[in-house]
Amino acid sequence: MNIGHLLKTWRERRGLTQVQAAEGICSRVHLSDLERGVRLPTADVLAGLADRLGVPVDDVVDAYLAAPVSYQQWLAFARELASRGRLEAAWRLVDTVGRRVLDEPSADARGRYRAEHLETVGMLRFHEGRTEEALAAYMQALAERQRTPSRRYALARAYYQVGTVALNLGRRQLARESLYEAFRIVQFIAPGDTPDPRDRVVDLHRRIVQNLSLALLRERNVHGAWFLYRQADELWRRYDMPEAWSGPLYMARAVAEMGTGHLQEAEALLKHVLELADLSDSDRVRVLNNLGVLARLAGRWDEAEAYQREAWRLYGVCGGGVPRAVCNELARCAMERGDLDQAEAWLAEADRVGGYWDPSLDGETAWLRVRLLRQRGAVAEAAGLLEEVLRREDLPVTLQRCLLVERLRLVLTAGRTGDLTEALDALEASLDRDAFF
After folding, report:
1. Using one digit for the tens of pLDDT, what is the confidence trace for 138-165?
2. Degrees (nearest 5) of the Cα angle 339, 342, 343?
3. Plot region of 99 (φ>0 → left; ψ -120 to 50 → alpha; else → beta)
4. Of 66-80, 332-346, 395-409, which one has max mean pLDDT?
């Protein structure tokens, strides 16, 4: 049974009109053309219609394999099925295409089809949680792209796929090098200069910059990330691609601006992000937290606490964001105004909500608790906790230095501190500007 006949049969079985069946997927005229065999459906349209009509997935796959479509369309349908959780059916398509590709007479075409086949294999393995095998497939696909004439878009995407999976596996050098190469290539790809749709070109630009900056920030290379954002901004202005900037990308750029001392630029970016209509509540918590940090660094403590309290309120609604970071900041604010009981309550809350992907947040909570104990006069207990924290291996260098400053404070607590304490305050404030890296 061909695709058109299959869709029409199941639509009539469901008692749906063409308008009802097509709603939200395609136009009625488009569905009519599909049923009459005037045209063939794209992967997303076919998958959407099959799901709505309840067509058995094996019947859909059989009909699509019998249709006069290209290898790329078969593989696109396999990827669409995988994204909908139909992995078994997706593998059927992929395995069949893999066998047919071998019969392709042109060596160059065979190489391109094999590369796309391997990329789809990598995607399916990634969906199955077989990340190491996914990386192996993507690396094989990249090798095929390098051996055969490939469009820049396809080559940049191949490097991006390798870099992204390597980043997921914690292979930082491979991730960084692959994503750098993807960025180098994508700089020569402008919408309109390629047969690929504009939205796909823009999306590839965005994803490459986002993951490369993430790789750099995980290596604490904040200056490298800052320079990357500047390059991307200049590039996207030249190509008239303002939509490449997304909320998460603006947020990451703001963090890089903070880490390089460009605090006013960071604040302007974060306030712009807050105005985005499509910003998720979880991201809004992160933005408010960072705005609070900036206000604290500028000495605007009331404003800092207001931002953090709003972040905490929103966390209670959505359950996302960086709750431990918010608690740590609220504890700082309470200590600044001398409310030690409130500070202790926020540190207890920080322990309750747990950590985030950055283990330094746990270390920051411990550092703040050492400061709180010293201010309460529990010097011996503070010293014991401080030495315990200093033995951790996952602390950022700046946080280690803040702990060493605190050690000096504890040593001097019993004597006259005077001007020395004031000097240490200034040193700590300077170091604290980088404490979130």
Report:
1. 999 999 999 988 889 999 999 999 999 9
2. 85
3. alpha
4. 332-346
As a whole number, mean pLDDT of residues 187-197 equals: 88
pLDDT tens for residues 13-53?
999 999 999 999 999 999 999 889 888 888 889 889 988 99
Amino acid in the structure at residue 184: R
**Euclidean distance between the first and the last CA atom of the chain, given in angstroms as a whole number:** 60
